[in-house]
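User: Batch of two.

Assistant: Item 1 of 2:
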Amino acid sequence: MARVTQILWRQVTDSDFVCVERSRENTPVGGGGQTYFSLSFGDHLDKVDFGRFLGLEPPERIGTERPPVPIEAITLGNSESSEVIEFRPRYSNPSDSRDRYYIARQNRQRDNQVRHPAWRADRGFPIAPDDIASKTDPRMPDLTQLKLLVGRCDDGTYVADYVNADRLPMGAPVQLAILFEPNRFAGPDGLIDLTPDPPSVAELQKALDRARERPRRDRPTSPEIEDARDATARSAGGRSWRGQGFRQSSDERVAIDRHAMQRATSWLESMGWQVVDRSIDHPYDLFCQRASEKLHVEVKGTTSDGAAVLLTPNEVEFARYASPEMALLVVSQIRLSADSDGAVIASGGDIELVHPWDIDLDGALEPTGFVYDREPTRDDDRA
C-alpha cells in the first residue's frame, strides 16, 4: 500500500474563504476577486522542496521557469473521487521577487471552477451562505483551524484532504502537530516531511477521521478578540497571524463601538434609566440611575454572537470593584455596510444585559497575553 511521504498544507483565512465561496455578483469590482489559494515561499516553504513535491525535474524550475503544474489527487478515503489540482505561478516573470504559486480555480459558485471534492461541503468542509460578500458577515463559520492538505505518496500519486480540528489524534505522526495549531500560530503554509517512517494512506485517513470525530474545544471568539490576540503575539515578538491582516479595520471598529453605545443608551433609557456617558474618562461606559438604583454599565459591541467579548485590565479591575452595581451590556450580531461615499455603517444588533454582573462567577477570563516582570518586588526586599 502507498505511503504518504510529504504533506503540503495551506491555512484558509477569512479573506480566502470569502473569495472562494462568494458568487460573481457579490465580488467587488477592481480587486478582491481571486478564486484561488496562494502559496508563498520563505522559511516555511522552500521553492526547491516545493518543486520536488510536484515531481518537477529538475525541481529548481519552480524558481526559474515557473511552469504551471497540474496533478491529480485522490480524495483521502475515497479512491473513486479524484480531481486535478492546478498549481500555477502567481507571477510568471522569473525575475519577479514575489515568489508565489497558487492552487487555481477553487471558487464554489462559478462554472469555470473545479474545487477539489476533498474540499467540498459533502465532506464536511465549511460552507458560507450563497450570498456571502464580506469576511465580517456574522454568518461566517469558524476558520481558526481550517487547513487544506495535499499529500504525496511514495509511488508518485497524490491524496487530498483537510484539517479543521485542534488536537493531534492519538497515534498520529508527531510531525502533523502543526496542522492542529490555530492558524494564527501555524503560519500560512508549509511542507511536512513524514520520512523515514511515513504512514500508509489508510493510516493517515484513519488519523484524520479520528480528528474530525473529536469535538473542538469550546473557545468562543470574535473578530476583535482574534485581532487582539494577533496584536499581542506581534508585540511580544512571536508568530502572529500571517497573510491575512486585521479582520476589522479601525473605521469598522469605531462604527461598531459608536453604534453599540447608541443602542445601549436608547435601550436603557427605554427601561426608565437616566444615562450619562462616562466612557472618555472612566473605566466603564455608562452611569445609570433610576430612583434610588445606581448602575455602572460596560458596553460591548460585536459582529459575532457575543459569546466572548474583549476586556481591558482596567475594565476587569473596575468590574470587580463596582459589583453588585455593575452590568455588562452586549450588542451582538451588528451588521456592517457602506454608504454611497464608502463610509462604514453599523446597524442592527441584539441586546443582552447581564446584571448583576460578577465577572469572576458569570464567565471565564482568558488572558490574551502576559506581562512578565523579570525583577518582581519581593517581601524581603521591602524590609
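Item 2 of 2:
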Amino acid sequence: MLAEHYCRDILSGKRQGADARILISLMGIPAISYEAILRLRILAYSLGLLYTKRLPKPVISVGNITAGGTGKTPIVELIARYCLDRGKRVAVLSRGYRGSAQGRPGIVSDGLNLLMSPDEAGDEPYMLAEKNPGLMVITGADRYAAGILAMERLKPDIFIMDDGFQHLRLYRDLNILLMDHERPLGNGRVLPAGLMREPRSEIKRADLIIYTRCESKDVFDHFPGIPYCTAFHDIADMVRAPGGETVPISSLSRKRGTAFAGIAEPDSFFAMLDKAGLDILEKIRFQDHCNYGEKEISKIISVSKSASADYLITTEKDSVKLSAYRQRLGKIYSSVLEVKIHDMNPLAVRLEKIICCGESK
C-alpha cells in the first residue's frame, strides 16, 4: 500500500531524484507499447473501424486523462443535482469499479430504492445513489448497454457517464475533462511510466476542462482554446457513522483523531482535515478502492489505540464499505465533501444547452 502511493508520487512528478528516474526508465518500454495500442484504438474509431453508439437521450461525460485522483465523484454529484433541480430525470452510468457485479449492467438505484449493496455496486456508485434521492445509478462495463437498460426500465431524461473520457464506444453530447491544476498531466508520460491514460493530443476532445483543487479562480490556462472552470473541494460536514446525525466540524475541534483513507490521493483528504483545524494524530493510507478486511480494520484499531485518539475519521467512499465493522471501530465519522466552482457560468451555459436539447428530443 505504501508502495502504491510511493510509485504514484513518482509518476505524478511529485517525487524527483535517482529512484524516480530509474523507475520511469524501467517503465519506458512498456509505456511505448501501451501508447502505440492507444493510438491504434483512437485511429480505429476515427476511421469507423470501431463504432461509437448514441443513446436516445443526451449524455454528459465526466472523466480524466490521468489515472485517478481529480475528484470526479463530487463533480458528477454537482452536475446531477443541477439537472435534478431543473426537474430532469437523471441517470449516472458507472463502470462499478471493484463491485462484484462489475461487467454486466445492473441498477444500483431506481431513484427511489437502493437495489444493490456497496459490495455489489462498488463504493462510488453506491455512495452517489445513497446520498442523492431521485438520482438513478446504473453500473456496467459497457456504458451503452447500461444506458439501454436504463431507457427500458427507468426512462431518464439525461445521462451522466462517470469516468467516461476514454469510453469512446458511447457518444457524448458534452465531454468534460477534469484535471488537477497543479499537475494536470502528472510527469507527462503515459502508463506505466506516468499517469496519462492517453496521449496529451487527445485533450482536444474535451468541450470543457474543470481544473480541480484550485483555491483561487485565477490559474494558469494550460490548454488555451478549451473553455474551463476552476473548482476546489472542501469539507462541508461530518456524519456520525453509520448513517447517523450530521455534526459541525467544530464539534471535533478539542478532540484528537486518527484519519484513514483508501483513495487515489489520500494526502489531499488529510490536507483538508488539517485546513479544517482538526487535530489528527495519525494518518493511515490504504490502496485506492480498498476493500476493507480484517487486516485493515485491525491496523486502524491498533494505530488509533496507540495514539490514544478520541475518534476515527474517513471519507464517504470508504465509509460505505465499513458497515460490518461499525461496533469494533467505535466512534467514527465520515467527512462530507463539497465541490465549489469559482465561476459556474462556463459549465452552466453548457448544461443548459443539454437540458434544452433533452427537452426537444
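The domain at 59-231+340-360 is CATH 3.40.50 (Rossmann fold).
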